[in-house]
Structures are given as C-alpha cells and as structure tokens.
Specification:
alpha/beta, Urease, subunit C, domain 1, TIM Barrel, nine-stranded mixed beta sheet, five-stranded parallel beta sheet, 29% helix, globular, binds (4S)-2,6-dioxohexahydropyrimidine-4-carboxylic acid, binds zinc ion
C-alpha cells in the first residue's frame, strides 16, 4: 500500500504506547493492537508522538536574501525540528506587504512541500510605519493571511497601531507586535544593565519593550481586537501581560527558545552569534519567562528563527545583524528548560508548540489532537537521547547557531506532513 504507514509503540503526548495508522493524509485509526498488512512500519518504541509543531515566527528570507535562507532550506530545517507549519515573517525584500508577495511565498512553500508555509503580511507599507499595507487584499489572497506583523520593526505610531487592530477584526486577523520603543533603543547592542555598563555596549532597556506592550494591550482592550506579542523577553513584560489578560482582553504572547535558555552574560564573549533583538536578558528574566510559559501567561513558544549570511554575522559585535537560528533546536531547548525541569509535561508541550500557535494563526489542519479522523501532522521525538549541536549539519543555509557545541536533550526522529514523512530516522525525505 502506497502512503500507508503504521507508527508502532508511540506514546501520544507521553501516554501509554500505541499504534497509529496513517492513510490518505489522515490518522485513520489508533490502537495498541493495530497492525494492518501492507502498511509501512515506522517503529516508534520509546518515542513521544506530538501534533506537528507550529511556529508563529520564522524568518525565511525569500524573496531577497536567498543567500541566507530560502523557503525550501527553511522548510527543511522546520521539518527536521518537527514543525509541520511555519509562519513566514514579512521582512523580506521586497517586503510581504501585497497580495502578490504573500502569494509568492505561499506558492514556494507548496512547491517545497516539506512544511505548510503560512505567510505573515506586513502591517505597514515597506515596514516603514507610515501607512497601512493592503491587509484586506492579503487576507483575501490565495495565502489567506491572518497574522500581520512588521516584525524586526515596531509599529511605533499608536494611531496606526489602533487602526491596524481595528481593520483585522473584519476577518478575525491578529496583529503580532515586535514591542520596541525605538527612541529608547537607539544604537542598542545588548540588555541594559550592569553588564552592558561593564562591557561598554549601549543598553536595550526592558522598559522599551514593556512600554509598548502596556500601550498595545490598552489599545487592543479598547477596540476589542486581537493582539499577539512577539518574543516577550522581560519579567516586567510578563507582569503587564498578566494584568492585561486579567481584564479579559484578547491578548496572546510568545517566548523564544533562546530567551528560555540563554542570558545576557553570553554577550561578554563579544561573539555576535549571541546578538539578537530583543536581546538576551538576565537569569531572573529567564526564570520568570519559564514560569509564565508554564502558567499560561505566555501562551506559546515561537522560534524567531533568524538566519543571517556569514558576512552579516561574523563581524564585530556592533556591526552584526541581530538574530539566531532556532527551528532545528526548538524542541530540544524546550525539553531542557521546561520538561526536564518539571515545569511542563508532554501535553503541555503539545499545547504550547502546536495547539495554541495553530489557533492563534488560524491554521485549521494543524494543532489538532492526535485522534482518528484528524490530519496526519505529527512529530516523533526521542526524549532520551542527547546530542552536541553541530551547526555544519544544519539544513539551514546559515550558520548562526547559538547552541553550537552545546549538549541538548532529545532528537526528532520523524515528522509527518499530511500523512507523508518529511523526516524519517532524522533525515529529510525528498
Ligand atoms: O533578532 C532579530 N532578528 N529580531 C528581529 O526582530 C528580526 C530578526 C531578523 O529579521 O533577523
Ligand atoms: Zn522581532
């Protein structure tokens, strides 16, 4: 039988071992005694089965910087990381601010066929923060855009932000804000604190993030619209989100794997691989972010996978572009910071890396419970293994991997996208 698979012995979200029959793109049946003749067997003893991961925040760099990443190479990295859907950020060249560009990215994703690539539309024309982009046309396009973001830049004008929030209500869209009060971050290089003073690097104060989150949650509450806060990085931001959510406003937030694991102390190496926006924060911030992800104040994990070409990254700290890779290591970093610490179980991981981001992004075929009848989007993960991260083995076209040389837990063994394996035995298929 072609394209019929039986996954054997997998523990769905950490439950008892069972078998899953995948046929015609769907989970046809689930049960411990299931063993249909002719189906290709995928042994999964000891592996955790999770719904395919969904990333709300991926930079794929196509069109414009295909030397750093393409939709195809980024999709390979996504599949290897266990992702079945990624939201491709709009800060490409040209910017994804028209129906034409978002449809181009969407088509490239379909052609690569390794992951569902859902384009994010820009909020403002050219990310310039002056004029709303054609949000309605992007929503109506073949790409059916629902998430809009100027990420990389903050929508700084509060009146424009309000109008964007109001506009996307018509099609249940969401504005994903990169919260940065840029008047407070001019020339900023790293987290503002004792360490930035000691290293002589201009600081990026927590207040620059928190001020925008406070403003935008108030705006979202006022107009009754959906706001999503990108890459929350400070303890103060968590406090504001907790307050705003307590009002019942329609607010969601993400944290990156790197903000759950790495701290500003890495800047002391002056290795630009650790330069990122928002910057790595303090150990106290990391603790609070982990707690907030566990208690739901932060809804989900998003990678902010930000590939950069060598010449943009392997240079002096101040000249280097901010951003780090994240797709291939996300599940391992979450295992280290949230599962091995006892803060989340596997159901909690499925919630925060699949179900919730799929819901926020409006992706109906993703983030479903692994149950008969659902689309067969899933990842098989070995929680027991450990491996040392080797950037040279990455599927990404870039090498700015902040975990290089680090020993991380777990390994993605297989990923299935609509019933077909995109990864088997840790290798991309096709
Ligand atoms: O570090 C970052 N890199 N932060 C952003 O907001 C943008 C991203 C990029 O595009 O490289
Ligand atoms: Zn950003």
């Amino acid at each position: 039988m072609r394209d019929v698979f039986v996954v054997t012995g997998a523990r769905i979200e950490g439950g008892d071992p069972t078998n899953l029959l995948l046929r015609d793109g769907r989970i046809a049946d689930i049960g411990p005694t299931l063993h249909p003749a002719g189906a290709e067997v995928v042994p999964a003893d000891g592996l955790i089965a999770l719904p395919g991961l969904v990333d709300l925040h991926t930079h794929l760099r196509e069109p414009g910087r295909e030397d750093a990443e393409t939709v195809e190479t980024g999709s390979r990295a996504a599949a290897l990381g266990g992702f079945t859907a990624v939201h491709a950020m709009a800060n490409t060249d040209p910017v994804a601010d028209t129906a034409g560009v978002v449809e181009q990215v969407w088509r490239l994703g379909r052609e690569a066929g390794l992951c569902d690539v859902q384009p994010v539309g820009a909020v403002t024309v050219g990310l310039r923060g002056e004029q709303l982009a054609e949000l309605g046309a992007m929503a109506d396009s073949a790409a059916r855009v629902r998430v809009f973001s100027d990420d990389g830049k903050c929508v700084g004008d509060p009146a424009l932000m309000r109008r964007a929030l109001e506009y996307v209500k018509a099609f249940d869209g969401v504005i994903a804000q990169h919260a940065e009060e840029t008047r407070l971050t001019e020339d900023a290089q790293m987290n503002e604190g004792i360490l930035s003073a000691r290293l002589g690097l201009t600081g990026w104060p927590a207040a620059a993030e928190e001020a925008i989150i406070a403003r935008d949650t108030l705006l979202a509450g006022h107009v009754g619209s959906r706001l999503h806060v990108c890459h929350v990085s400070t303890a103060g931001s968590v406090e504001i989100l907790r307050w705003a959510k307590g009002k019942g406003w329609r607010i969601t937030a993400e944290v990156t794997p790197h903000h759950l694991l790495l701290t500003d102390e890495l800047a002391a190496s002056y290795d630009p691989v650790y330069k990122v926006n928002p910057p790595l924060r303090t150990g106290e911030d990391v603790e609070v972010l982990r707690g907030a992800l566990a208690d739901g104040t932060i809804d989900c994990v998003a990678t902010d996978h930000a590939p950069h070409a060598l010449e943009d990254k392997e240079t002096e700290w101040a000249a280097a572009r901010p951003g780090m890779l994240g797709l291939e290591t996300a599940l391992s970093v979450v295992t280290e910071t949230m599962v091995d610490t006892g803060l989340l179980d596997w159901a909690g991981v499925a919630q925060r890396l699949s179900r919730v981001p799929a819901r926020i992004g409006g992706l109906a075929a993703h983030g479903r419970h692994l149950a008969a009848g659902e689309a067969a989007n899933l990842v098989l993960f070995d929680p027991a293994g450990r491996s040392v991260v080797d950037p040279a083995r990455s599927a990404s076209r870039s090498r700015n991997n902040p975990y290089a040389g680090r020993d991380l837990p777990g390994r993605v063994v297989a990923t299935f996208l609509h019933g077909r394996p995109t990864v088997l035995d840790g290798k991309v298929q096709g």
